[in-house]
Amino acid sequence: MRKKIAILGSTGSIGTQALDVVRYHKDIQVTALAAGGNAKRLEEQIREFKPKLACLWREDKAKELKAAVADLDVRVVWGMEGLIEAAAGTDAELVVTAVVGMIGIRPTIAAMEAGKDIALANKETLVTAGHIIMPLAKEKGVRILPVDSEHSAIFQCIQGSGGNRLCRILLTASGGPFRGWTREQMEKVRPEDALKHPNWAMGQKITIDSSTMVNKGLEVMEARWLFDVEMDQIQVVVQPDSVIHSMVEYEDGAVMAQLGTPDMRLPIQYALYYPERRFLPGARLDFAALTQLSFETPDMENFRGLGLAYEAGRRGGSLPAVFNAANEKAVAMFLRGQIGYLSIMSLIEGAMERHRIIQNPAVDQILEAEQEAYEYIDSQVNSGK
């Protein structure tokens, strides 16, 4: 029996690498693919992997795709309804959620309601709605298998823990392209500068987030929900070589670490085949060449996004949604050249300061908080502040 999966965000970095794994092993059937607006690339994926359902976010692009694949046995849908159908409306056993942003919340919930396991790469879902997602997973008896390299590393380190609780999570960070820089040095950073990550090949938004260390803050909030720990039990450690992907410490002081090359196919494959480990082609760590590993304390003064994330996570409620949404909007504006690099943090901080926190928000309230953050940033940028 071939395992059946659906991939949301199939034309992005995680989605395409997930399909690399499928292509290599040849024993997984793809039942549904969903993407944003890249109709041409999605058509290529449909012709190769032959899903029964395909979704694009925009209706006009979906109609374009429908005409292009009229010779194939595939149904084309669009929008949020289509994304939910791609997540929950096929016989997939596992759904890879690799869309970017809070758009992933409703499809993830729908997939879980339908009894499907989740290979989670859409960290925003847990950051903003972890209080909904984790109890639902327990209620429905579905597994949430982390795909982010750091969370996969933690997950791998706790296998065989015998029920012993974690004392501390040591979440590693590369430090990004501006590690060691001051705010003054970062004043003139351009998008092309911030998109040059020293170790990882990722999508544009996550690469910018890595450069500001906002991504690490989002990962701290995600880890809090995935592993049922408090925010203050998660310590960020800068490990510039991206060799140690994260570590866990137990009460007796023992520390377990997961090491490997910076290749996202490893955590993706681990989630797709868990608990089985399979051969993965590619480079291996050469410890003779490595010779040493270095560690640093994160600079929360010059990289304020990490500190703001801890604040949002500790205060909870709807504030993490505001943090995440403000960052999404600000990063998009930075990539379009509408604001400067340091304005990303200023806008996030401003959106958080003006927000009135809602405890245990429903999905609609989470999305309202998102819209509030968007409107605040638009007003600030349009007024020239």
From TrEMBL:
InterPro entries named in the record: DXP_reductoisomerase (IPR003821), DXP_reductoisomerase_C (IPR013644), DXP_reductoisomerase_N (IPR013512), DXPR_C (IPR026877), DXPR_C_sf (IPR036169), NAD(P)-bd_dom_sf (IPR036291)
Keyword field: Isomerase, Isoprene biosynthesis, Magnesium, Manganese, Metal-binding, NADP, Oxidoreductase
Biological pathway: Isoprenoid biosynthesis; isopentenyl diphosphate biosynthesis via DXP pathway; isopentenyl diphosphate from 1-deoxy-D-xylulose 5-phosphate: step 1/6
Keyword Manganese recorded: yes
GO molecular function, one term: manganese ion binding
GO annotation (BP), single: isopentenyl diphosphate biosynthetic process, methylerythritol 4-phosphate pathway involved in terpenoid biosynthetic process
Gene3D superfamilies recorded: 1.10.1740.10, NAD(P)-binding Rossmann-like Domain
The 1-deoxy-D-xylulose 5-phosphate reductoisomerase N-terminal domain, residue ranges: 5-130
Cofactor(s) recorded in Swiss-Prot or TrEMBL: Mg(2+); Mn(2+)
Residues bound to NADPH: T11, G12, S13, I14, G36, N38, N122, E124, G203
Enzyme class, UniProt record, top EC level: oxidoreductase
Annotated catalysed reactions: 2-C-methyl-D-erythritol 4-phosphate + NADP(+) = 1-deoxy-D-xylulose 5-phosphate + NADPH + H(+)
Entry annotated with the keyword Glycoprotein: no
Domain 1-deoxy-D-xylulose 5-phosphate reductoisomerase C-terminal, chain residue ranges per copy: 144-227
Residues at which 1-deoxy-D-xylulose 5-phosphate binds: K123, S149, E150, S174, H197, S210, N215, K216, E219
EC number: 1.1.1.267
Superkingdom, taxonomy of origin: Bacteria
DXP reductoisomerase C-terminal domain ranges (all copies): 259-375
Binding site for Mn(2+): D148, E150, E219
Similarity section: Belongs to the DXR family.
Function: Catalyzes the NADPH-dependent rearrangement and reduction of 1-deoxy-D-xylulose-5-phosphate (DXP) to 2-C-methyl-D-erythritol 4-phosphate (MEP).
Protein name: 1-deoxy-D-xylulose 5-phosphate reductoisomerase
